[in-house]
Amino acid sequence: MTRTLIFAAALAALATPAMAAGSMTGNALIKECSRGSDYCYGYVLGVADSQKPCGLAQAANKGTITGRQLRAVVEGYLYRNPQKWHLSGHVLVLEAFVEAWPCLKQVNS
User: Fold this and answer.
1) SS3 at position 63
2) What is the number of structural domains in the chain?
3) Please, are residues 53 and 100 in contact by the beta-carbon 8 Å criterion?
């Protein structure tokens, strides 16, 4: 996990001036993801590592979820929801994770 965060931080340092001037929007994120940039990959992994919603955490405990899979889920979500591209990128990444891996109700026995 530490390696992933270092990787994401390094990619963030290489951000274009438009991204550095403000927060990443869905418009910028879809542009980066659609051209297959490492920035998109690092951004998605960074959000996953720092803001892991419970459904994603539960799914990860049951098996291996790859970075490639996370990125594909986010890209698919962005393509299906162009009306949200003006929103913050990290919000859209979290929405994609919640849609793909909704929180499962914990049953205490």
Assistant:
1) coil
2) 1
3) no
